[in-house]
Structures are given as C-alpha cells and as structure tokens.
Amino acid sequence: MKLFDVYPLFDINIVKGKGCHVWDDKGQEYLDLYGGHAVISIGHAHPHYVDMISKQVATLGFYSNSVINKLQQEVADRLGVMCGYDDYQLFLINSGAEANENALKLASFYNGRTRVISFNKAFHGRTSLAVEVTDNPKIIAPINNNQHVTYLPLNDTEAMEKELKKKNVCAVIIEGIQGVGGIQIPEKNFMQALRKACDENGTVLILDEIQSGYGRSGKFFAHQYSDIHPDIITVAKGIGNGFPMGAVLISPKFKPLYGQLGTTFGGNHLACAAAIAVLDVMKEEHLIENAAKVGNFLLEELRQFKKIKEVRGCGLMIGLEFETPIKEIRQKLLFEQKVFTGVSGTNVIRLLPPLCLKMDEASDFLTRLNAVL
Predict the structure, then answer these.
(1) pLDDT classification of 251: cutoffs 50, 70, 90
(2) Could you give the residue ranges of the DSSP H alpha helices within the chain?
C-alpha cells in the first residue's frame, strides 16, 4: 500500500530530538525553529516528559470515558490555575480541529443559531465545521461548503459590529494570533469591541488559541494581552508536546448535558500524563517567561535586518515578511544552515520554536539567517 501523497516532503528523515535540536538518520543536527507546527512546547524528549509517559503507558495507556479517570481532573485543576480560567469547564479531545468542531457545536446548542463570523486568512482546521471557517477555498470540499460563514477583515471594528447587530450570528471564531495567516495580531481595541458586541447581540465568542496559546505569546493565551474573557477557548498543539491532544475551555454559562459531546480517545490516561508533564515543565522552568524574554530579543534583532520587509509577532510566534518569495531563503536555511522554519503563503517565514529556546540558540539562528541573507 502506498501513502496517500498529500504532503510535499523534504528529503530528510528526522529520527531524534533533544530540546530545540533534531537529528536525521545520517547524524546531521538541525536547529528546530518550527517545533513541528508549534507542537513541541517544552522541547524534544524532555526527561520529565519521557518519564511520565513511560510510567503511565507501563501502567495503563487507555480506558474509556465510561469510567472515572482522575488524571483528567488533575489536568483540569492544574490548567485552570496556570491559565487563569479555573472557573471554566474542560472537555478533552484529540486535536485542534476537533476542539474547534466542538466549540462551534456548543455555541449552536447554546443560542440555536447557525451563522458564523470568521476572518480573512483564518485557519481553524480541516474537518467539517473547522474547515468551513478556514479562509482557504482550496481545502473546503463542496460537502463542507454549507454557507454558514462570513469572512471579515481582521481588526475592522465597523464591519464586525455591522454583522453582529443583525442578531443572527451564532459565534465569532478568531485566533489569538493568526498563524497560517502570516502572524497577524488582533488589535486590543478590536478585541475589546468584539467582546462587547458579542455580549450585546447574543453571540458566542470563541478564541482559537491552538497555535498562539500555551505560553507561546509570552502570556498563557495571546488574547490575555487584550484583557478580555472569551466564552470558549480551544487549545491543542503544545498541550501534549507531540502527544495528540486537544481541549475546549468552556465558560460556566454553558450547562453540560449527558451525551451532548463525546470522544473515544480524548482525555485518555496516556494523553493526560503527557499534558500534566507539560504543565510541570512549563511551571518549573518558567517557559512562558522565557518565551517572552527570548521572543522580545529575537523581535528586536530581526527588525535590524534590512532585507526583511516586516517583522511581526509576540513571544516565540514570529513572522518574517519579505518583498519576494521566500522559498530559496527557506531552502538555504534548511539545507545549508541546518535550521527548520515554517512558511505562510509565499512571502512569510514563520518561527515557532520550542518555548525552551535559549538566548545563545536564538543568537545562533540570527547568525545563520544573516549568512543566508
């Protein structure tokens, strides 16, 4: 059987990782400034993470959600305290797309509406509702295109308020910082006006923090820079440091009903062990503070590079926009300088390193980038 060929692949076979570095099967070391799409939060093969997962899988890897799993409550308790939402409710699933599916479903259960506002360049996943609120017609199949969604310009308060005043919008879904869209940051005034308009018009506000959350921005959630509280927050990627996991943080105003949501694998024992290990390391090693410190250093230094048109970002979520396509720059970074980075569109390089990135590693990257430019 052949693999379904939907991924353009670099001819590199990564077999080992440690911290912010990975190695291929030939022994070549690479600096990882992408973290596998922002998934690696506490670093590759962190010893505490490895120990927690190893012990858990040797005891019990999985049992169903028809029995008590006290590890789920431990994740909820620990996460609630660390992120500042200890009065919210937690639903555990397997991925970011699944988190957004459940968030949109909850919103529709809550107010009985079906219309959704999303934003230009948004990315929320590839499953049914998640892909419909993603602004990329190429990945929306006809069966997913159900006319639920209106896309608006990001940070356009007037356009947003005009649509919400129609009082038929089920939910607004917005990323804390747009990732795939090129590291576009919602403005504080816009976010506060959005919160107010949702309250006034019976609309549920969903914050997709799948890429921008879990400390990446220098706060636990990127939306916390705007001093607002969403009704629902979705997380994934960094929550399990590579173990497939997602979650929905749900305001107390939503009342759960048996059978309303469900999952086979979500919140399994092994996933919870991974999530607890991530929270342990984030707290003990002050990784959110590190993301802010190292991120600020990178942002300041990168803005001195004259060949970069614009540097955008917050913490360790950084976009480098160039006047011309960046394919050659990225290829040289990878194959000549041995640095993994990401892209957005044709002109933006994305940096999404593990949150444990050190100052000397950041400086090393700047040297390698300068050599390419």
Answers:
(1) very high
(2) 35-38, 47-59, 70-83, 96-111, 128-132, 157-164, 188-201, 269-284, 287-302, 327-335, 359-372
